[in-house]
């Protein structure tokens, strides 16, 4: 990958980050039967970073990343810095600023999944333990800065694997509808050998399989959660509000159930005819499908699933949304549509939505991480000056009686 391409990626990533910033919300105007209650907080000080993101936590350490510099910070649970190191440029184990949020092995090693550079595993002090290569070179990048998990370390047949996925190069999709019949949507990478295998075809019940249409590659990015004790995989695609449940006790996941979810303000793409799309234009920007509804995250907390998503307009209202977010739009109109586009989290149990939202404190990046049934988030930053101290909170999901 040449240096010019990396510079282009960096500019696109930081531009997307700046566009995603807005007032963080707490859904305080609605009445929901669930809330997130803070139980503790930790502050880290004297931080100089371009894009400082909470990443993960275990019993002994808290992990942050400066995504703008491919730098990892390791703190103890009191907020004292233990290690910090950078892996960028031509060094072994280098990863890009668009790498997924890091996850941890059961031993506490750090796992980074990077579509541009492959899967990497590091010890706490930055020693490179696994230097994987890209399974397939990718052109897709995430447009929003979020703290949500995008991969998961799982254990199958006595071995540790990273469960993750591809962003497919958009021009490959123009082969035709047969693409959806043969595509496998998940990658399973051994954390001891670095070898990867592909899994999980589109369900025959999915619009991607049935419609014969073309879709932007963003639409079928999967959010997923693997339940190890029961060998169950739960999965939902970014622009299809259907929760799929699989038995993954064997080599391939087997679909056992699926439930369509009625997400308020969520509108699906119906697909585009292949003969109407110029070569290599299969992404939401080139298809002029701005403000698309997106499912960001699928997590399990106790008996509940938390699904975070961003509403979007039906096709008939796209021009209204464009106008509302234009620089010439009145402030009150822009605020009205910002509220419509506000990301939200629903609570699902037994395949049904039991709450269309959650009361929660303000969260930076409108996102959170779930680790061992605890919910972690960052305090919103100071808008008037550059921050050098960052506070993270942990909390519990509680039903309001």
Question: How are the elements arranged and paired?
Answer:
Elements: H1 3-20, E1 34-44, E2 52-57, E3 61-66, E4 71-76, E5 81-86, E6 103-104, E7 110-114, E8 118-122, E9 128-131, E10 152-156, E11 159-164, H2 178-182, E12 184-190, E13 196-201, H3 207-210, E14 222-227, E15 232-237, E16 240-247, E17 254-260, E18 294-301, E19 304-310, H4 318-324, H5 331-340, E20 344-349, E21 352-355, E22 369-371, E23 374-378, E24 390-399
Can you describe this structure?
By secondary structure, this protein is mostly beta strands. The chain has one domain. Helix content is 11%, strand content 36%. The protein has five helices and 24 strands. The strands form six sheets. It has a four-stranded antiparallel sheet with strand order 1-24-23-22, with no helix packed on it. Strands 2-3-4-5 form a four-stranded antiparallel sheet, with no helix packed on it.
């Amino acid at each position: 990958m040449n240096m010019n391409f990396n510079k282009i990626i960096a500019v696109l990533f930081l531009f997307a980050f700046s566009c995603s910033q807005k007032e963080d919300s707490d859904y305080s105007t609605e009445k929901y039967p669930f809330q997130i209650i803070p139980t503790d907080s930790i502050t880290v000080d004297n931080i100089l970073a371009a894009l400082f993101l909470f990443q993960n936590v275990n019993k002994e350490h808290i992990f942050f990343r400066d995504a703008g510099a491919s730098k990892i910070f390791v703190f103890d649970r009191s907020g004292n810095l233990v290690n910090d190191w950078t892996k960028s440029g031509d060094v072994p184990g280098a990863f890009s600023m668009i790498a997924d949020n890091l996850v941890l092995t059961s031993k506490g090693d750090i796992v980074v999944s990077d579509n541009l550079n492959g899967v990497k595993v590091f010890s706490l002090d930055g020693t490179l333990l696994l230097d994987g290569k890209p399974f397939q070179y990718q052109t897709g990048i995430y447009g929003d800065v979020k703290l949500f998990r995008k991969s998961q370390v799982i254990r199958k047949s006595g071995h540790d694997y990273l469960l993750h996925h591809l962003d497919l190069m958009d021009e490959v999709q123009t082969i035709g509808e047969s693409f959806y019949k043969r595509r496998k949507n998940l990658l399973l990478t051994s954390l001891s050998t670095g070898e990867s295998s592909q899994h999980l075809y589109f369900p025959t019940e999915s619009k991607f399989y049935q419609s014969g249409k073309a879709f932007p590659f963003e639409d079928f990015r999967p959010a997923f959660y693997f339940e190890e004790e029961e060998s169950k995989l739960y999965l939902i695609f970014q622009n299809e509000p259907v929760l799929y449940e699989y038995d993954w006790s064997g080599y391939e996941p087997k679909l056992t159930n699926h439930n369509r979810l009625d997400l308020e303000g969520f509108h699906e793409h119906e697909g585009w005819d292949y003969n109407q799309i110029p070569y290599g234009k299969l992404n939401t920007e080139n298809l002029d499908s701005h403000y698309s509804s997106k499912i960001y995250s699928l997590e399990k907390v106790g008996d509940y699933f938390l699904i975070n998503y961003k509403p979007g307009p039906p096709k008939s209202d796209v021009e209204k949304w464009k106008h509302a977010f234009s620089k010439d739009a009145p402030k009150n109109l822009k605020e009205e549509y910002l509220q419509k586009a506000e990301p939200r989290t629903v609570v699902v149990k037994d395949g049904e939505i039991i709450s269309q939202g959650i009361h929660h404190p303000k969260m930076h990046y409108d996102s959170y991480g779930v680790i061992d049934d605890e919910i972690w988030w960052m305090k919103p930053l100071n808008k008037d000056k550059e921050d050098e101290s960052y506070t993270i909170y942990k909390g519990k999901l509680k039903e309001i009686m």
